[in-house]
Specification:
This protein has about 400 residues and is mostly helical. It has a single domain (about 45-370), classed as Up-down Bundle (Formate dehydrogenase/DMSO reductase fold). It has helices at about 5-40, 40-45, 55-60, 65, 70-80, 90-110, 120-125, 130-155, 160-170, 170-190, 210-235, 240-270, 280-300, 300-305, 310-330, 345-370, 385-405. α1 (about 5-40) crosses α16 (about 345-370), α5 (about 70-80) packs across α10 (about 170-190) and α11 (about 210-235) packs antiparallel against α15 (about 310-330). The radius of gyration is 23 Å and the shape is globular.
Amino acid sequence: MTAAARIIINEIKGYHNFLKFMIGLVVMGALATMARFIFGLGVTTNLNDVYPWGLWISFDVVTAVPLAAGAFTLGAIVHCFHIKKLEPLVRPAIVTGFLGYSLVCVGLLLDLGQPQRAWHTMVYWNIHSPMFEVSMCIMAYTTVLFLEFLSPVCEKFGYHVPLRVLRWLEMPLVIGAAAISTLHQSSLGTFFLIAVDKLHALWYNPLLPLLFWMSAIFTGISIIILEATMVHRYLGQPDESELLEVLTKILPWTLGAYLIVKLAATALLSHGPLYDRPSLLTLFLAELIIGIIIPMFMFMKKAYREDDRMQLRGASLVIAGVVLNRFNVSMFGMEQADQAIYYPSIIESLVTIGIIAAHVLFFVLLAKYFPIFEHHPETVDYSLPDHAHSMTAAHEHSHASGSESVH
């Protein structure tokens, strides 16, 4: 057996072992989910009247929503600002967004005390509640992402007529996605404006909705960089480092704008002492230094923007900073000095791990078996039957061959 054959066999074994591992995590998460629905929240979680929102809200919703923001961010960049060279990155971003929001819906259902009444939101409207706005927008945005996700599915199975309809709806869907996502990304910050006496002054300020929306923009860009780099390394997809360099040019501006607004809001609009708890001040500085300042200066250097390893490292720092920020706002900053600290239960942890594993597993399978990373699939005219495509391709090939013989 040749060395090349051994490498291929090892890669196949590694791929299947990875899938088995992810499936195992998903199964554990599913079993934990069954336990939650059988025994209820009180038995399976460490939630209480002091901490009614725990890991499932802090990560599965408040953190997962900006992590799935690549779809609306890149869609706006490509279609609204006409940066068409980034078109190959749109589909992976849409897949990530669709999977992310689908799993956010799962997390929301798990956290509801009466999940069978979730449909009441669509019937009994409370237009003054940010929860109503977020729930409606998440349902609407998940539907939009599903419609955008159907394009590669139709291509895979040769459904030409639905594909033409989806092409016709592409621009309205992109505009609708950007508007809906802007609404609920900011409204997630609005949730915490009611915690006037509970959220620490380091994070509580009236600009929380704006800060949540701004952070979703550079988080979406960073997720695109992360996923494009990883699928190139481990799934053999095209190297998009040149396209990612365009995104890294945008990041310093968005990170810098966020940093200015964040520092100004903390200094001028926060009420209460800022330095009374050293542990919280450490967390505040960590999210700014790790997630904002270091990657901002990294992406200011052209050499780092052109280096795919530095692209990955910088994007990872941004994502880590946003995750820490969301936990600071929704969990750590809520903890009171004289109260017991909340720790997630084993069931809560297994469910969250299962949700993350399901996202990774589905993305890998879709990237493997569907045309997610094909460049410029929109250039194909799906109004032609299959044999016409073959004749057109043959004609172009013969024309090219003739041209080469002439020259």
